[in-house]
Amino acid sequence: MQSLRKSVCVAVTKNLNRTVTINSAIRAENAQSKPWTSIPGPEPWPIVGQLPHFFPGGMLADPIKIPEVLYEKYGPIVKFDGRFGSPTLIFLLDAEASAQILRNENWMPVRPGFASFEHYRKRKNNNKPDEPTGLLTDHGEAWRKFRTTVNPILLHTKTIKLYSKILEEVAEDMIARMRHLRKQDNTIDGKLDIEMNLWALESIGVVALGGRLNCLDPNLPEDSPARKLIQTVHDIFKMADKLDFKPSLWRYIGTPNYYKAMKCYEDQTNLSRYFINQAREQYKTKDSQSNDEKGILEKLLEIDENVATIMASDMLLAGVDTAANTMLATFYLLAKNPEKQNKLREEILSRSEQKPYLKACIKESLRVMPVVSGNLRATSKEYDILGYRIPKDMFVTFGHQFLSISEDHFPRAKEYIPERWLVDKTDPLHYRNAHPFAYNPFGFGVRSCIGRRIAELEIETFLSKTIENFQIEWSGGELNVRPASLNYIVEPFNFIFKDV
C-alpha cells in the first residue's frame, strides 16, 4: 500500500511538473508575441476609416482580388481597423493558423455576420433572452439549445433520403421549363439566375415545408409569393452586406438602409409564415404516417412549433441563393471543360447507383468557385497566432476561398480537375496532400452547415438531370462574379443548352 501511495505521488508530481513546464512555455511564447495592434494592414483614413481603399483607384477596389492583394502586401495575417460601428477584423490567410483557432474554439462558438437580422429578430421577440431567433442569429446557450433540438432530424440520413424522389421530380420539371424557355439558338430566354433561384426555392421548399410551391409553373405571376420571396432573399443578403459587412451607423441611429433592412426582414418573415401556414394546413388533411415517413417540418412541429417555424424560415432563406449560385458556377466550369462534362455524362448514363465522379465535380466546383468566400468567428479565448496575441472576442475572418485556390495546397489550383478527389494518395493531385483546412465550403465543427446533406442531394439530383439532357456550352468571356456576403454569378449568361 505504501509503495502504491509513493507511485501515485511520483505520478502526480510528474504531471504537476509537466503542467508547470507547459504553462511556462506558453507564457514564454506569449511574452515573445507581439500585441494584435501590431498586425499589419491598410492604414485607416481619419473619420472615414478604410472606405477610401474600396473606392475606384483604391488598392481594394476590385473585391475579387482583395485577399490576393492583402496577402501580397501584408502577409498571411492582416488587420482591418473598424469604424462607424463596424468591428475591427483580423483576416487569416493561412490554413494552419485557421485550424489552430477553429479546432480550439469551445462547444458554443460565436459566428457573427448577420447582426442586423439578429437585431430584427430579437426586437420582434421583445428582447426575451430565452426565446430562440434561429441558427443564423443565435449564439451561446440559445444557439446550443436550438441546434440540439434540430440536429437529430436534419442530420438523419433516412430523413434526407425521403426527399430523393420528389427532388428528382423538381429537377425534371426544371429541365422541362428550361426547354420551354430555350430560343432557337439554344440559349435561355430570360435571366438564368432567376431561373436557378426558382429551382432552388422549389427544391428547398419541398424539404423545409414538405410539399411543392409550384415555383416552376410557366404561368407563375410576377407578383406571386414565390417570386416575392426570391426577391426578398436577394435583398436580405444585399442589406446584410451593407449594414453588417461595411461601415454603417445603424447601430447608433436609424439610417435609411436600416429601415429598408427592417422592412426586408419583416417581408421575409411574413412570406415564410405564409408558406409554413399552408404546409401546416396540408398536414391536417394527410393520413397518419409512421415516424420514419414524416418529413422535417412535420417532425419539428411535433417537438416545438416555434422552433419548426424558425427553422423552416431559415432554410428558405439560406437554401436559395447558395444552391442557385453553386449550380451556375458548376454549369460554367463543366461548359469550359467539355472533356470533364462528357466523362460525367458517361457515369450518369451508366445508371450506376454510385456516382463518385458526380460528387467529385461538385466538390471541385466548390473548391474553384465557392459560393461563400470565408467564415467568421468571434474568438472565445486568447490565441497566439503567427507571432501575434489575438485577444478574446476578436472578430477573425478565415479566407477559405483564397486557400482553396492556392498552389501551396492544390497543384494546378486554378484548373477544374474533379479527378483530384478520386485519384490514389500517391498522385500529387490527391486532395489530401492539401492542408485539411484549405478546403472548407461548409464550415467546420459544431457550427458547420446543418443543411449540407440537403444541399448536396439537391445539387447532385439537378446536375445529374441537366447533364443527362443537355450538352452545356459557353460562348462568351469569363463568368462574371460579384462578391458580397455571397459570391453572386451575374449577367451576361452565355450558356448554350444543346439536346444530348
From TrEMBL:
- Please give the name of this protein: Cytochrome P450
Which superkingdom is the protein from? Eukaryota
PROSITE patterns xrefs: CYTOCHROME_P450
Known cofactor(s): heme
InterPro entries assigned to the protein according to its UniProt record, in alphabetical order: CYP11_CYP27_families, Cyt_P450, Cyt_P450_CS, Cyt_P450_E_grp-I, Cyt_P450_sf
Name its species.
Answer: Pieris brassicae (White butterfly)
GO MF, one term, reads: iron ion binding
Q: Which residues bind heme?
A: C449
Q: Does the keyword Oxidoreductase apply?
A: yes
Describe the family membership recorded for this protein in Swiss-Prot or TrEMBL. Belongs to the cytochrome P450 family.
PANTHER family associated with the record: CYTOCHROME P450
Keyword list (alphabetical) reads: Heme, Iron, Metal-binding, Monooxygenase, Oxidoreductase
